[in-house]
Amino acid sequence: MAKASIPIPVFTEAESFTKSKFRDFYIASYQDAPDAGLRRVAPHRHTYYEIIWITEGSGLHTIDFQSYEFKGPCLFLLQPSHIHQIRKDGPTKGFVLKFNESVFAVEAGAENLLLKYGIFDNINVQPVLHLDATAVALLDDLMQKMLQEYKQPTDLSEVIIASYLKIFLLQVYKLKDVHTQTIAQPVPEPRYLTYRTFKQLLEERYQQQHAVQDYADALSLTPRTLNEITHKYAGKNVSQLIKERLMLEAKRLLHHGQLSVKEIAAQLGFEDAAYFTRFFTKNSGASPLAFRSKELELVS
């Protein structure tokens, strides 16, 4: 009898973002103990973006079944779709930074940063980004500032962290650009371009269009094909991505604004405020008013 295959573990924001103050962001510095385990239990993937900055140490990083040797200081950029595993030659030291695209919604104009610049694209061309002393000093300063803001949060921390992260990613983009000027860039995969177009459409239309069919029609695809594409590159189906975008905006409006639940429902395209309340409660575990009350307690 054939042995059943073991599914690839998927780590989500709920499991990996441990501070309630930052729903879309996590950062930590680390230093392996001499007797620390040097291998992940199994290859895994995330539903969020991850940056691994190894300042000291070496080993082998397997990304989507391709193995790459590394030696610090170096940087790895991982998309939600990547399956990866790190094997270390010995103890390492560095930073781990995790975020999803929603972290940029607190800063006007930055929402499509990842799509516009393709910072996490072409991982097969540049799986490891090695850093010189100048780049290390620059990125270390930004990492330390994000870490300090994360550890000692204030009411402005979300905006400050989003700004630092934007600068960090644009600096990484500049470093990648310098490294790749002499490398022939492959033509992007057609399905990935479709995924990027879908994400742009979602950002433009989520307040008016809640149905998978709407986006499939706009892209001249069947819902099944569009679901296959989003699952490949985001690890989630179209309905989940629409739901997450609506929930994120609803939480922001409840937390930052003075609109009533009825007004928020209308702004997000729900004709019936009662239905919006059921939708929000089902996906957050609390009613809109209970969520707003809890958020006010956290910042008071």
From TrEMBL:
Q: Extract one GO molecular function annotation from the record.
A: sequence-specific DNA binding
TM annotation in the entry = none
- Per its UniProt record, what Pfam families does this chain match? AraC_binding, HTH_18
Q: Does the keyword Transcription apply?
A: yes
Q: Where is the HTH araC/xylS-type domain?
A: 196-294
Per its UniProt record, what PANTHER family does this chain match? ARAC-FAMILY TRANSCRIPTIONAL REGULATOR (PTHR43280), TRANSCRIPTIONAL REGULATORY PROTEIN (PTHR43280:SF32)
Q: Identify this protein by name.
A: Helix-turn-helix domain-containing protein
> Which species is listed as the source?
Pontibacter fetidus
